[in-house]
Design goal:
The chain has 645 residues and is an alpha+beta fold. 19% of the residues lie in helices and 25% in strands. Strands 4-5-6-7-8-9-10-11 form an eight-stranded parallel beta barrel, surrounded by five helices. The protein has an eight-stranded antiparallel beta sheet with strand order 30-29-32-27-14-33-28-31. A six-stranded antiparallel beta sheet has the order 15-26-16-22-19-20, with no helix packed on it. Helix 2 packs parallel to helix 4, helix 5 packs parallel to helix 6 (188-202) and helix 9 packs parallel to helix 10 (336-346). The radius of gyration is 26 Å and the shape is globular. The N and C termini lie far apart (65 Å).
């Protein structure tokens, strides 16, 4: 009887996870089959890593009510394994909860676990610690890279296996790598290894696929036997020609556009990308009318909180917002594009009845007065938990065991510089932006690809501080081996600067622990174009007697130049209104409280608007992501255009 009872319990448990089914490619009839029936997915991309966990249900419900029957998501390796062997899958990183939530709502899942994902995410999702081997060839058969991949997938894929559709879960297909045909290596042995690795952990029944640009050239190195080849392309192109490229790799089977672009990404210093609703709706209708499967990338973009944004080449980092001009805004708001897409989908499949969850309310908490705390230099003992590291030459972030944020490099002038003398990075080795001061006076900014020299003056022995900011690692192309910090020597005039003291800065920990204090008043400095990088603090109270508070809001930093902002220790991300196009930062309600004052901490790197008098930040209900900027970027990162077809 006990064995019988155990068997029944197992059956009930299996049933509670959902009835096991089948999902396969029907090559003869050019379609997918789900439980034996012809099936077509209409999916949307959502990145759980860009949305607070408390909002996952709201966003997924809105996607379901738009008529989608599936969602697509990446799993960023570096988000879950920030240091080797130390994994995090709780809270906002609880991918299993996300998968179960999608299934509970009625959405299937198309999973993209990498190991490389691109996604405008730092280093394309690859962890920075891979660069401990300086000459590692990422996304190849390099033994060190393969060893790390095998260990990571050995942890991740067994977690994912119970959520496969044939095991009663929501996952119908799993992507192997990502747009590999756009990478220089073209290493078929690497792709074969990944295929065997995925099969060994997930079994032979799961549909594994690849995604590449809709051009034969991309599919040449991106597609491989046993992985179903799909393509990606945006609105406005020749849909038939795009799918003809897929047919070159897959003569039979379902037509699939794995990334149909509803918008596009932004870069600091370029205009906010906008793709017309009409154009998106028209192309989507054309794709669906052909009976094709489609995933809308993005359906909601979300936010690059903290330091997670990526960058493109020539070096152009992406901003904090990943709004993407998507059908759901960065904050999950319903847009005109959302309803237009819903109407198109309604023409091709029955969509759910009932109310759509409304746009979340926003609240303007008003102006918060800020006061100066310590400069970065003054707070070194607080900020550098690990202490100073000395060396003849500067070391990179990775050599200093730091992945993100800021490192302070300190040296001394070896000679008198009575007249302005160039302090230079002749090999363009400042990655990515450096704030230079001599004896506590700002001297200028060095910036990758833009400014490789500043003039300094001072006496022999004067202290030179160089605060280097990692602006986000390159996430696409051959330059993803993106080392940060001072990656080559600096010169003073014709001489190499020697004798460095380096401080890894644990700013997030110091802010969250409330360690930063005020400095003693001193005589006001002489007016200068730049001020020393410094922290500023303020607080505001949300009354607990008002119903439905706290609510989402946006923070605006009028007249501030560039820096990082934290609220209650949560790193919201970077601000850079002087370059744009993003002016406001999204503040989700879950980081705010009515039980105590809400603390705002700002690290202003260039010039705070606090002298003379006080300075402030402002909380508003309206996002500003499209401030007019003068773009000096010559290249546009439209990965696949009509010419590619």
């Amino acid at each position: 009887m006990s064995l019988l009872r155990f068997g029944v319990t197992l059956l009930l448990f299996a049933y509670s996870l959902g009835e096991p089914g089948t999902f396969s490619v029907d090559y003869e009839n050019d379609c997918f089959r789900k439980d034996g029936e012809v099936f077509r997915y209409i999916s949307g991309s959502i990145h759980y890593n860009r949305i607070p966990r408390v909002y996952w249900k709201d966003r997924l419900l809105k996607m379901y009510m738009a008529g989608l029957n599936a969602v697509q998501t990446y799993i960023p390796w570096n988000y879950h394994e920030e240091s080797p062997g130390r994994y995090s899958f709780s809270g906002d990183q609880d991918v299993e909860y996300f998968l179960q939530l999608a299934q509970d709502i009625g959405l299937l899942v198309i999973l993209r676990p990498g190991p490389y994902i691109c996604g405008e995410w730092d280093m394309g999702g690859l962890p920075a610690w891979l660069l401990n081997k300086k000459d590692i060839v990422l996304r190849s058969s390099d033994p060190d890279y393969i060893t790390a991949v095998d260990a990571w997938m050995g942890k991740l894929l067994p977690m994912i296996k119970p959520y496969l559709y044939q095991n009663g879960g929501p996952i119908i297909t799993v992507q192997v790598e990502n747009e590999y045909g756009s990478y220089f290596a073209c290493d078929y042995n690497y792709m074969r290894h990944l295929t065997k690795l995925f099969r060994s952990h997930l079994g032979d029944d799961v549909v594994l696929f690849t995604t590449d640009g809709a051009g034969v050239g991309f599919l040449k190195c991106g597609s491989i036997q046993d992985l179903y080849a799909t393509v990606d392309f945006g609105p406005g192109g020749n849909v038939t020609a795009a799918f003809d490229a897929q047919r070159h790799a897959e003569p039979r089977g379902p037509l699939v556009n794995s990334e149909f672009y509803t918008g596009w990404l932004d870069h600091w210093g370029s205009r906010h990308s906008v793709v017309s609703t009409t154009r998106v709706a028209k192309s989507l209708n054309e794709i669906l009318s052909m009976g094709a499967n489609v995933n809308l990338y993005m359906f909601i973009g979300g936010t690059n909180f903290g330091y997670w944004n990526g960058a493109n080449t020539p070096f152009a980092p992406q901003p904090t917002s990943y709004d993407y001009d998507a059908p759901l805004s960065e904050a999950g708001d319903l847009t005109e594009k959302y309803f237009a897409i819903r109407e198109v989908i309604k023409m091709h499949r029955k969509i759910p009845e009932g109310p759509i969850p409304p746009t979340t309310p926003k609240f303007a908490y008003g102006t918060v007065v800020m006061k100066q705390l310590q400069t970065v230099s003054d707070a070194l003992e607080i900020l550098s938990f690990s202490g100073p590291v000395k060396g003849m030459y500067p070391q990179t972030f990775i050599e200093l065991s730091q992945a993100f944020g800021y490192v302070l490099y300190r040296t001394r002038l070896p000679v008198d510089c009575n007249t302005p003398t160039p302090l230079s990075s002749p090999l363009n080795g400042v990655h990515d932006r450096a704030y230079v001061s001599v004896d506590g006076v700002s001297a200028g900014i060095l910036e990758r690809n833009r400014a490789i020299s500043v003039n300094v003056t001072g006496k022999s022995g004067s202290q030179v501080d160089i605060l280097v900011e990692n602006m986000g690692r390159i996430n696409y192309g051959k330059s993803i081996n993106d080392f940060k910090g001072l990656v080559s020597n600096l010169t003073l005039g014709a001489d190499t600067l020697l004798g460095w003291t380096m401080y890894s800065l644990s700013i997030d920990e110091a802010v969250s622990q409330g360690l930063l204090g005020e400095t003693k008043p001193t005589a006001p400095p002489a007016p200068a174009a730049l001020s020393l990088p410094a922290f500023y603090g303020g607080s505001f109270i949300i009354p607990d007697g008002i119903p439905d508070l706290p609510q989402d809001t946006y923070i605006k930093l009028p007249q501030w130049r560039k820096g990082q902002v934290w609220i209650n220790g949560f790193n919201l991300g970077r601000y850079w209104p002087s370059r744009g196009p993003q002016i406001t930062l999204f503040v989700p309600a879950n980081i705010l409280t009515t039980a105590a004052p809400n603390n705002v901490t700002v690290l202003e790197l260039e010039e705070a608007p606090c002298s003379p008098g006080t300075c402030s930040v402002e909380f508003t209900t309206t996002p500003v992501l499209n401030a007019t900027v003068q773009s000096d970027l010559k290249q546009h990162w439209r990965l696949f255009t009509v010419d590619d077809l």
